[in-house]
Design brief:
The protein contains 15 helices and 22 strands. With 483 residues, the protein is an alpha+beta fold.
Length: 483
């Protein structure tokens, strides 16, 4: 009988070795298809079966996650099915490829009619018309936000109420005139040390747990006056306010640890020779780049927290006409279908929808009555002011510690609205001020600010019990809603 080696040798000699390719005995691998069919609901409410990349399917729920679809694959989906996922609207929208536009900077698809071309932090590109973009009055150039505009030497002119090119002659427009006792607010300088001296920039953010929002404070007084020598280096403006008998002091834009340091300097200077009363208040502005989705979440979050927040305020701030409560229709009924009408009503005070005539690039009366909600969104929602959220419900004070804690609370609310939108949307009733502070300020600083909050609540609890003014929850219990 031939041996094993002889058999192998005879096979080699016959030239039939390829028949015995050992790989042919291995189990054949099956390659998963790159595209799979799924059923989605389009913006018309109809179900439609489309093919999406297998990588966009959630392995646990088997649902498609449109945010995981690349730009190239989405273009194929649009051409094949006339459907595109619009992140800002949270829906599959019907349309041709030329009806949509991809924003490289935000990495999202939008309607082409809503796209603006201009400068972003990464260069030039498209972005959504509802972002806080800036259009330069002199050059008609668009910038993604005010910081990008400043980087390209385009700055906001208070008197023109426009963003102007650096070559703009401010003497011609009379900047600094108006109902001001004095205006010593500073603009950003090329001198870094000078910016830090006046609190406009900072290399550290330890006092705000690394939150880098800009902030500004308005302090109303009932009596007092700062002399020329006293406000020379304060980055401060003193204006006439008809609602109080004394001047209102408005800080320039502040930022970071140097901003808080400068705020203390301002508070110490004003408190030496000024008085306040129950007609006065403190308004805090938090600056950033805020879109419509943030606005929805901010109103829902503010409505949920407003009872807690007004508990730490004097009784005079309850049901106050200058810091009205967020109405129920804005705090609980607003969603991604009716937001144009709800936000429009919140800003314009009537049944007005946001459209080409009412948007962020259109002026709005600076003294419109709608700005008197305790959360005022008019500044960043129209072309009437700088891109800030204003918090109006704090009682009168010139005390740095109180104002600093309130600034941190306001910053925390803004940060939470930006970074916890899923929780705000699905479970707002579970959110507390303590959670917001700990989430935004961290365990150590968050506990310090919350301890301060609880002391304030206990301080004003007796006055609230004696007052006829009601907290938001008491208004709801009596009337079923806040109008």
């Amino acid at each position: 009988m031939p041996g094993e080696n002889e058999i192998i040798e005879s096979i080699r000699d016959n030239g039939t070795a390829s028949v015995f390719d050992i790989a042919s005995f291995a189990e054949e691998s099956v390659e998963e298809p790159r595209f799979v069919s799924v059923t989605v609901r389009n913006n018309a409410g109809n179900e439609q079966t489309i093919k999406v990349p297998n990588s966009s399917i959630n392995s646990e729920t088997q649902d498609v996650d449109p945010t995981k679809i690349s730009r190239e694959d989405m273009e194929e989906i649009i051409e094949a099915h006339n459907l595109c996922w619009l992140t800002i609207h949270d829906e599959w929208a019907q349309g041709e490829l030329d009806e949509f536009c991809y924003c490289e900077y935000d990495r999202e698809w939008i309607w082409a009619d809503d796209a603006v071309f201009g400068f972003t932090r990464d260069g030039e590109g498209y972005f959504h018309i509802d972002t806080d973009y800036v259009r330069c009055y002199d050059t008609d150039t668009c910038y993604y936000d005010h910081e990008v505009a400043n980087d390209h030497y385009c700055y906001y002119c208070e008197n023109c109420e426009e963003y102007r090119d650096e070559e703009h002659d401010h003497d011609e427009c009379g900047e600094g005139s108006g109902e001001s006792y004095f205006d010593n607010q500073r603009g950003l300088s090329c001198n870094r040390q000078l910016n830090q001296l006046f609190g406009m920039s900072s290399s550290t953010y330890s006092l705000s747990n690394s939150m880098q929002y800009t902030f500004g404070v308005e302090m109303e007084t009932s009596r007092g006056n700062l002399g020329h020598e006293e406000y020379q280096d304060l980055n401060l403006k003193s204006v006439y306010d008809g609602s109080t008998s004394g001047p209102e002091y408005v800080t320039g834009v502040l930022k970071g640890d140097s901003g808080f340091k400068h705020l203390k300097k301002i508070c110490d200077s004003i408190s030496e020779d000024h008085e306040v009363n129950s007609r006065c208040g403190v308004h805090v502005h938090i600056g950033g780049s805020f879109n419509r989705r943030f606005t929805i979440m901010l109103l829902r979050l503010g409505y949920q927290l407003q009872d807690e927040l007004f508990m730490m305020m004097p009784a005079s701030r309850l049901q106050n006409s200058f810091c009205k409560y967020i109405p129920t229709w804005a705090g609980t009924e607003i969603d991604f279908q009716n937001w144009r009408s709800r936000i429009g009503e919140y800003i314009y005070g009537s049944e007005t929808e946001l459209d080409q005539h009412h948007n962020k690039k259109r002026r709005h009366d600076h003294y419109a009555s709608t700005r008197y909600r305790w959360i005022n969104i008019n500044n960043f929602s129209t072309a009437s002011g700088k891109p800030t959220v204003e918090f109006r419900n704090h009682g009168a004070s010139m005390n740095y510690s109180k104002i600093r804690n309130w600034v941190l609370i306001c910053m925390s609310i803004v940060r939470y609205a930006e970074n916890n939108q899923r929780t705000i949307w699905h479970n707002p009733e579970l959110i507390t001020l303590e959670e917001v502070l700990l989430e935004s300020l961290g365990e150590n600083l968050g506990k310090q600010v919350y301890t301060y909050y609880k002391k304030r609540v206990q301080e004003f609890k007796p006055a609230h019990a004696e007052s006829n003014n009601k907290l938001p929850s008491q208004v709801i219990a009596e009337h079923g809603k806040i109008s």
